[in-house]
Specification:
heterodimer, A: 112 residues, mainly beta, 4-stranded antiparallel β-sheet, 11 strands, 52% strand, B: mainly beta, 6-stranded mixed β-sheet, globular
């Protein structure tokens, strides 16, 4: 099992450009999450999907959109990137219950 | 909403000693707390969960405590090794079954 995979690993964008971060899990988990991690800020929840077909806003959703394409895949889209979105983005999934989350390796995004 | 506070200063200890990391929560007592390990350039990895009604949980050289009076969890690594060097994150279950994470504490174990 690959667990949680994310693409790309690194990305540099110019202000105003758009891009989609991809995430997939092969553990048959119902819930998936997108976080951003900034120095000293910890992980902050952007959006989550409790099950296929549903998505909800987290703590910092502004400037982002998500799509739960199917049970395996959950993508994060930046429509018009801003320097404030420079961060490391992590996707995670969980089967529920104890809510132990499995994280992907992250995408390091720089917006110039 | 819940706020999780961890010491942002790195903890430096000598190999073989016990490392103790602190996690404080500010509001309601969460149903459980989780601890994760994060290595540089990688995603967090789940280590332990401790429930509100549990005082202590152990897993090999790891021990976690939960004190609802102090609103605090302590994470201990006994007989620490250089391979234990990493950042350790505390997370609490929030409303809607979401997790709220602390900023993490970096542990450096010196040989």
């Amino acid at each position: 099992n690959a667990g949680v995979t994310q693409t790309p690993k690194f990305q540099v964008l110019k202000t105003g450009q758009s891009m989609t971060l991809q995430c997939a899990q092969d553990m048959n988990h119902n819930s998936m999450y997108w976080y951003r991690q900034d120095p000293g800020m910890g992980l902050r929840l952007i959006y989550y999907s409790a099950s296929e077909g549903t998505t909800d806003k987290g703590e910092v959703p502004n400037g982002y959109n998500v799509s739960r394409l199917n049970k395996r895949e959950f993508s994060l889209r930046l429509e018009s990137a801003a320097p404030s979105q420079t961060s490391v983005y992590f996707c995670a999934s969980t089967s529920g219950g104890n809510n132990e989350q499995f994280f992907g390796p992250g995408t390091r995004l720089t917006v110039l | 909403s819940q706020k999780i506070e961890q010491n942002s200063e790195a903890l430096n200890i000598q190999e073989g000693k016990t490392a103790t990391l602190t996690c404080n929560y500010t509001n309601y007592s969460p149903a459980y707390l989780q601890w994760y390990r994060q290595d540089p350039g990688r995603g967090p990895v789940f280590l332990l969960l401790i429930r509100e009604n549990e005082k202590e949980k152990r897993k090999e050289r790891l021990k976690v405590t939960f004190d609802t009076t102090l609103k605090q969890s302590l994470f201990h690594i006994t007989a620490s090794q250089p391979a234990d060097s990493a950042t350790y994150l505390c997370a609490s279950r929030d409303a809607g079954n979401m997790l709220t994470f602390g900023g993490g504490t970096r542990l450096m174990v010196k040989p």
